Amino acid sequence: MNLKKPGSSKPEPGSYQPVMPRNWWLQHRYFQIYMLREATVLPLLFFIGCLLYGLYCLSLGETQWQHWLAFMAQPWVVLLNLLAFSASLFHAKTFFELFPRVMPLAPPGLMIAGQWLATLLVATGLVLLLGGWL
Amino acid sequence: MSKTINIARYNPQTDSRPQLQAFQVESDNSTSVLDALLQVQQQDPSLGFRWSCRMAICGSCGVMVNGIPKLGCKTFLRDYPDELTVSALAHFNVEKDLIVDMQPFLTHLAAVKPYLINDDQSSQPHRQTPAQLAKYQQFANCINCGLCYSACPQFGLNPEFLGPAAITLAQRYNLDSRDAGKTARMPELNSKNGVWGCTFVGFCSEVCPKKVDPAAAVNQGKVASAGDFIISMFKP
Ligand code: FES
């Protein structure tokens, strides 16, 4: 973009061009929380890796499946998955709060409550369905 | 009581970068940052800053107070401890002291064709119901102060990003029942420096002195842009 004013033939007096520091997101709390929201994808990646590994083990047969179950029961795996779970709850909270602002279909409070209710219903449904299987 | 105000001074003829200079100002319950700057100017007439209305409507007194974009006339010393730091709006080139070059901001505003576009030649007034007005009214409250650009890290990283106020203004006209210019505005919003440059940091809405909620407008723009894309897939 040409920042020179039209019609000025004199050279512009110097102006100071600010540079954004690499750690801009540490500047204040608002940016830190934003980065935390973005970072929730990291533990989720681990969880998805676990799921894919589980599917792969299932295709290999019973012994491998038992091996996967044992893997999933290890404390550090449980811990990381708990982290993924809380991270996705946090992400859901931020998302549910932003949604009514982007699509104002009903009063915000109602929309937020509705989204949590829907999440709870779907989650309970899935647990009942899969719980019956395992 | 007396408070210390550190001001980022920059003289383009002698300095390579802004330097903090401390001043003492008298402050009571009603002293705004702008009042404090005016006091400092009494001590040092070379201090440069912009202001006009003193009542949060002209949008010219934007500065960073302790690193947060604020209107000087709407920010009060009583809300700060004994010391505070005032510097020029972030992400813009500094011309002198607290004066920045707003040209990129103005260029971005103009790029979204911020006016009613329609073929209507009649001289009759355009009627609008309260419900039609309510659709865009909040987005029409922008005073062009530029605080949202200083709050936006995406604009800081990419000065070509249209940015919160310009996209909000586009949305304001797109939602106006008297306007038929959406097709003319969408290419700019769909472009790589348009709505998709936003990652919903949301700080723009936090700092907006008029509660315009630009982050909501930008993300409504994303919905419109996605709709536009889907429709274009079905067009020959
Ligand atoms: S002086 Fe006009 S908005 Fe502050």
What do you see in this structure?
The complex is a heterodimer of chains A (134) and B (236). Chain A is mainly alpha-helical and 134 residues long. Chain A has a domain of 60 residues: Fumarate reductase/succinate dehydrogenase, transmembrane subunit (3 helical TM bundles of succinate and fumarate reductases). Helices cover 72% and strands 0% of the residues of chain A. In chain A, helix 2 crosses helix 4 and helix 4 runs antiparallel to helix 5. With 236 residues, chain B is an alpha+beta fold. In chain B, the strands form two sheets. Chain B has a five-stranded mixed beta sheet with strand order 2-1-5-3-4. In chain B, helix 2 packs parallel to helix 6. Chain B starts with a strand and ends with a helix. The mean pLDDT of chain B is 95. Chains A and B meet through helix 1 and helix 4 of A and helix 2, helix 5 and helix 9 of B. The complex binds FE2/S2 (inorganic) cluster. The site of FE2/S2 (inorganic) cluster has 13 residues of chain B, from loops.
List unreliable stretches of 5+ residues of chain A. Answer: 1-11
Relative strand content of chain A: under 5%
Using the coordinates above, name the CATH class of the largest domain in chain B: Mainly Alpha
Q: What percentage of residues of chain B falls in helices of 4 or more residues?
A: 25-40%
Mind summarizing the main beta sheet of chain A? none
Basic shape of chain A: flat
Mean pLDDT over the full residue set of chain A: 87
